[in-house]
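Sorry to interrupt, but I need a hand with the structure work. Could you add the entry underneath, on a fresh line?
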Amino acid sequence: MIHISNLPLPPTTNHAYVAMRGGGRRLSDEGRAYKAQVRIRLQARHRKEMASLQTDVAYGMRICLYMSNLRNAGYPKSAKNRYKTVDVSNRIKLLEDAFAEAGGFDDSQIFSLTVEKVESDQEYCEIYLWEIPPKPSEPHAPTASQ
């Protein structure tokens, strides 16, 4: 299992991508900067772990987003909801892409993904990545004679 901590919190999808005239989307300047920062940090501080990733393996990934101010201070008197509107799925794609690029694999290899937000004084994220072994009925699964 690979455990990476203290990565910067990814921007929301609304800030990471911009709509193009004529349709489609592209990375914003903020999105490109974040992706580059994470990729450089992973390759510099976690070179061995990134080099161990393979292109023909299924992976499971757990992402923990540590965020401040998740609760509405005025609840229940002046706020309708206990928690602020913070959509965790809105922050995943850019982080997943940066991690996959740094590790030299395709994010389509992530077969299981869990995302969790945690209230914290500091904002950062953690990633856990592990190999999901093939089932015996899948191609390339080891046989009893191997």
